[in-house]
Each structure stands twice: as structure tokens, then as C-alpha cells.
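I had to read the description of the data format several times before I understood it. For illustration, here is how one protein appears when written out as sequence plus C-alpha cells:
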Amino acid sequence: MRHASIVLFVLSLLAAAACGPETRSEACMGADCDTGTCKPGQKRDCYGGLEDTVGVGPCVGGEQTCLESGLWGNCAGQVIPVAEACGDGIDNNCNGAQDENEDRDGDGFNTCAGDCCDSTECGSPGLVNPGAFDSPGNNVDDDCDGLVDNSAALCDQGLASNSTNAGDFAKAIDICQTATVSDKKWGVLSASLTLPDGTGTPEPVAHSIRNRFGSKTMPRGGVSMALLSTGHAAGKGDQNPAYADFVSYSGSKSSAFPADWVMANGGNLPNAPGCADPNGTTGNDPVMLTLEVRVPTNAHSFSLKSNFYSAEFPEFTCSAYNDFFVVLLDSAYSGNPMN
């Protein structure tokens, strides 16, 4: 008989927000920028774009009128910078150039390649481009898809508990968007469920998508979470796959450990301090989820939330037999500091 372990996890991307120009109804110019009440019928100049774009290209200021409610109304007649429409002969973003195909903000996206904020169109041009995550609530079209604050909705509803589609497991840990090698969007490029050496297929019972584990452990985001197990990825009462006592499970799959993980640990597997090195060079009943993800250009970090449960015979504690949950990050990022 073999002991077993279960891992439950979710992943979240943490992105920086891009501040846009002042576009609220109380936007104004100069020192007259109070946001309190006003006298009905009173008028004042206003402009919702960056101040140094007024009078450049088609950009002009407008006029606000105080409403009967005593609050300032919309800025009527203003024209503010918008994304450059290449080929129309107009300086749409009011930066002093017409139809320029440039990357002034240095984010890797040119104006004619879909960068809707390359210089003057928003407050933080370097954070806005087709490869960005649309941060909710900042009133900016961060990903230049023509819609403001339309970050992806929940995508983990209706997933089959016994799914063998690795892409479903990406959704279960809240990575909703997919991408291709040829486009520049952020998202999952590829996903696979294999043994830890990157080959073969794990036992069908070794992975599942659940809306809970037991009665207390719930998803941290959305309605689903991913389970990976060296036994049955199920709690009592679960089906597809069904629950089985950990101590009674004996699978048939084995695999070499991930080579890069072994190399990173000097050729040996780590164990708790003072405990024997794990035996052998293969793992029993293993499963590995691999996701290749293009990161949003405005993301600074990501977090992985997981629970690791192990059913262990007391006599094997601090022995050469051990359960492992391993997270490995391979990154194409070459900046400083390194990942």
C-alpha cells in the first residue's frame, strides 16, 4: 500500500493599474478645479485630456454648465486625444505628429499595431497596449480592445470534474484568457497534463476540478479549484473521480523526477533538515500540470495559493519516503533582478 497526497491551488495575476486623464464631470483647467457645488447656470472652461495637448491637432477645450442639482455637467464641445488612426491624415492623439507609426512609450507596441495609448492618450502610456491586462475600475481601456474595464469574467463555471483537458485546469485556477504564438495578447499559450518527466499521461483519478474539498476547503477565487493527487483527487462523497481511502490506493504509474528540479538541488531531492534523502530516482503515482503563459505587459507579479495535504504512516515520518508538491517556474524574462 502507498500513502498519498493532494494539492489544491489557484493562481492570480497582479497587474499595475494605468491612470487615465481626468474624464469626470468636474474636469476643468487652471486653478478652478473645485469639485463642490456650483450656482445653476454658471459656466466654466473645461478639458479632460492632458493639459499640454490643448490646441494641438484637433484637440480643443469645452465648456461646463452648472446643473440645477448644483453640480457641474459634462464638458460640452471638448475634443481630447484618442488613439492614432493611421492613414487618415489627422493628429488624433494630439502629440504633434500625423499618422506616426511609433513606439514612443517603449512598450513594444506601435501606434499602427494597436497601441491605443502611446503618448498623450492616457496618463501612463507604458502600461497600456494590446498585451496588457484590463485592470477593473480605472476607467482605462488598458488592453486597447475598444472596451473600458472589461476584464475577463469568471471562466471556471461548468467545468467537468473529471476533465482531461489541461486548459480547463488553467480556468480552474482563474487564468481565463488564451493567446497564440502569433498574437500579442496575454494568456495561456499551451497546457498539458503529463507525468513529471514530461511524457505519458497520469492516472485518470489523479486530477479533478472541484467546487470544494471536504466541507471546509473552498475556492479562493471563482467557483472551482484544481486538485492534483498521488491517490484519488476526491473527498468523501465525490464522484468522477470517486473517493478512495488514501491508504488503499496503489496506482501503476511512475516517472522520473523533473530533471531541472533535481539539477537545482545538486542532484538530490530535498527533505526536511535532519531527515534522510528520498530514495530512488522515480516518483510513484505522479501527475504534473504544465502551463505556458504569456504574462500581461502591465503585470508585476503573480501569486499561487495552494493547500498541500499528505496522508502518512507515522513510521515513515522523516524517512527516505516522502510526498512532494513542487512548483517550477521557467521564465523568458531577462531583466534585472532575474526571476
